[in-house]
Amino acid sequence: YSRGTLHCINTKTGKIIWEVDYATLGMKFVGEKGRVPGARRHGFTNTPLIIGGMVYALVGGKGSGVVCFNRKNGKVIWSALDNEPGYAPPVPAVLAGRQQFVCFFVDGVAGVDVRNGAQLWNVPMKTDYGRHVAAPVTHKNMVLAGSHQVGLQGIKISKKGNGLNAEVVWNNIEAQPNISHGVRVADHYYGVADPAKLVCVEISTGKIAWSSEELSFPDPKRAMATFIVMGENILSLSSGGELCLFAASPKGFKELGRTQVCGINWCLPAYVDGKIFVRDGIKKKGGNLICLDLTK
User: Fold this and answer.
1) Is the Cα torsion angle 108, 112, 88, 204 positive or negative in sign?
2) What are 178-196's pLDDT values in tens digits?
3) Cα–chain center distance at 268
4) Cα separation, 286 vs 116, whole angstroms
5) Which residues contact 74 (CB under 8 A, 6 or more apart)?
6) Which of 108, 165, 194, 226 falls 20 to 30 Å from 179 in CA-CA distance?
């Protein structure tokens, strides 16, 4: 998928059921050449969104900024917009009463209609090489999105006539995200700010409740962590392979436990039924998949 081919694979046999080459839709992976921005440069890491019988993906190119595929056969149901994709997945949300997908493109963040991909609102953002990685976070009628250059922005979505209006109501440079997805618990955002610190931000105001350097990273300039919300706590996996459980509280960082589980990696873990699956980037070329039981 990262090089521009979307696959549907049988989970029991591993056989490909259908596949779509993005080049046939006008978007081709180029690599680190010149000033090529976004997914064409580092790969299509913006995970597709599956809802019911449809698969939504940020493909990019003329008329294919957002594409809705048939989940059974991979046929295009509809496609829209000319935007190039960044690296974040489309995020489903209901904002100002409208069901939509929040999409982080090379040229900014936008809300698109789930029915046909029509743009409902947009906020331009400019980052070198279109490096928009962190998935937008939504809460009530707010959208949080940003990069290591524009900062973390709070965008308020409201009704305007028959359409929607988007207004940046705050911008926090200190909380600037880089290559890590943040999460929301209650009225606060938790994420890694560049460089290498964990921050808790009040969503309505953009004010930092607290920041901490308690998470460890092998290279602070390329710090990355993934987060899984677990009730009133948050489980993080750092790029150094360390799991840390901490309280999701705006009162301050409170560690509940930590352990080393794998080597250096930038891979998102998967969690199901008390087990977490992580990839070890050190043990052998290509990584080694590890399953850890968190119930014991």
Assistant:
1) positive
2) 999 999 999 999 999 988 9
3) 10
4) 39
5) 6, 8, 18, 19, 20, 55
6) 165
Both tokens assigned to 125: 């953002």
Other Cβ atoms less than 10 A from the Cβ of 232: the count is 10
At 282, is the pLDDT very low, low, confident or very high (cuts 50, 70, 90)?
low
The rounded distance, in Å, linking the Cα atoms of 161 and 47 is: 33
What lies within 8 Å, CB to CB, of 88 at 6+ separation is 46, 103, 104, 132, 133, 134, 135, 136, 181
At 75, list the tokens.
């046929």
* Cα–Cα distances in angstroms (integers) from residue 279 to residues 85, 162, 240, 272, in the given order: 26, 47, 12, 15
**pLDDT tens digit sequence for 15-69:** 999 999 999 999 999 999 999 999 999 999 999 999 999 999 999 989 999 999 9
Q: CA 112, CA 117: separation in Å to the nearest integer? A: 5
- Tell me the C-alpha distance between 295 and 275, whole Å: 8
pTM of the model: 0.94
**Amino acid identity of 252?**
G
Which residues does residue 144 pair with via DSSP β-bridges, in sequence order?
Answer: 137, 154
C-alpha to C-alpha distance for 19 and 5, rounded to whole angstroms: 7
Residue linked to tokens 């209006």: 165
Residue 83 DSSP label: P
Q: How confident is the model at residue 286 (pLDDT cuts 50, 70, 90)?
A: low
Residue 44 DSSP SS3: coil
The three-state (H, E, C) secondary structure of 216-253, written as one string: CCCCHHHCCEEEEEECCEEEEEECCCEEEEEECCCCCC
Rg of the chain, C-alpha, whole Å: 19
Residues 59/66, Cβ–Cβ less than 8 Å: yes
